[in-house]
Amino acid sequence: MRARHLLAALAGSALLACAVPQAALPQGGVERHMTCVAPSDAGAIDAMLERAGSPLAGEGATFVRAATRAGLDPRALVAIAAHETILETYAPAQAIRNPFGLGPGIAFTSERAAIERAAEVLGRYYLAEGRTTLAAIGAKWAPVGAANDPSGLNRHWTSGVGTYHAALGGDPDQPVLLADQAALPGCAGAPAAPDGPRPDGPPVVTAWGGAPPAPSRHGADPATGRPAVVEGFVFPLALPEGAPAAYRDAFAEPGATECAGARRQCAVTVAAEPGDPAVAMAAGTLRAASAPEQEAGVAFWIETPAGDRLGYGPLAAYEGGVADGRPVAAGQHLGAIAGWVRIAWERDGARIDPFPMLAATRPPAGG
Fold first, then answer.
1. Residue with more model confidence, 263 or 243
2. Is residue 340 a contact partner of residue 270, using CB atoms and an 8 Å limit?
3. pLDDT of 29
């Protein structure tokens, strides 16, 4: 099954976004080129746009200059173009040089003019109103239930733009003001993908072999106190045989989610190559995350027959048929990552540290 992008049709206020037919968008692509960059590194933004084959290549300095003037993280502006028109690789957007869906149907004389106008609109009509988070921007730019969004695609705007922003090194959970984003790329807390040559070969699903997870303060079953396990568990990424996955136990580090009596990360982020497949960690039923859970970094859950909930951060692309209420088998492909995926685990309403279970199945690179 081929991955399909969740690209939402936009509707704004000062400028409305034109409806972009999802079925006409090309399959797969730009998420493989979205790599961590510093907010004001115009050269690195340009290199990414060039790798992606985007008509926006050469405008890295324009993104930085226009966004900085508005007080916006330039990577967030790039992320909107990635979500709206796949960095203007969508042919109808190319025809009018409008990578942001501004309109409906506004034609620009150049990509530079479109970038400058989008940054101006965001600064004047969004940031100036206090709409400084992606969720607040999306509520006005792509309102759910808008008349020009009969398929309800706007509900994916915040998570979609956030996925690309995080892939570029931004923190989509924080305001997208340049002053509020870290000056150095962080990939939303993800470790850097391992360097060095990567083994060739098809992606392989790795199943837990029964090795007991290491004891962990936050990795215990809340009922028994013993290391928690998921029967039939598989590693959340399908990778070539011998290819490393990078992750560390950041569960208890400070974060935005309440668990174990404090605000912590309450999850583990696994980094690999952009475009690597995410797979179902266990058999169960797909469930959409609630709005607060989405704000905390979980896009959807797998509910297992035993009562566990296994959570994933937003993916760069999703397989056809991935939807709320759909059954999945362990190891079934769910979509493609943007270079990392956030993994959460709940049992009986309590968060469990997934690191010991992950490490018992596929040890981290260098671990």
1. 243
2. yes
3. 55
> How far is it, in rounded angstroms, from Cα 231 to Cα 114?
52
What is the arithmetic mean of pLDDT over 94-117? 94
Strands (E) located in the chain: 3-4, 16-17, 102-103, 203-204, 239-240, 254-259, 262-264, 268-271, 277-279, 284-288, 300-303, 309-312, 317-319, 327-328, 333-336, 340-347, 350-351
Task: Write out the DSSP string of 7-67.
Answer: -PPP--SSSEEPP--GGGSPPS-GGGG-----TT-HHHHHHHHHHTT-TTTT-HHHHHHHH
Report the percentage of the chain scoring pLDDT > 90: 50
Alpha carbon distance 120, 117 (integer Å): 5
DSSP assignment, residue 226?
S
Question: Band of the pLDDT at 263, cuts 50, 70, 90?
Answer: confident
DSSP state of 135: H
Bridge partners, residue 204, by sequence: 239
What does the alpha-carbon distance between residue 68 and residue 62 come to, in Å, rounded to a whole number? 10
Per-residue b or e along 235-264, where b marks 16 or more CB atoms closer than 10 Å to that residue's CB: bbbbbeeebbbbbbbbbbeebebebeeeeb
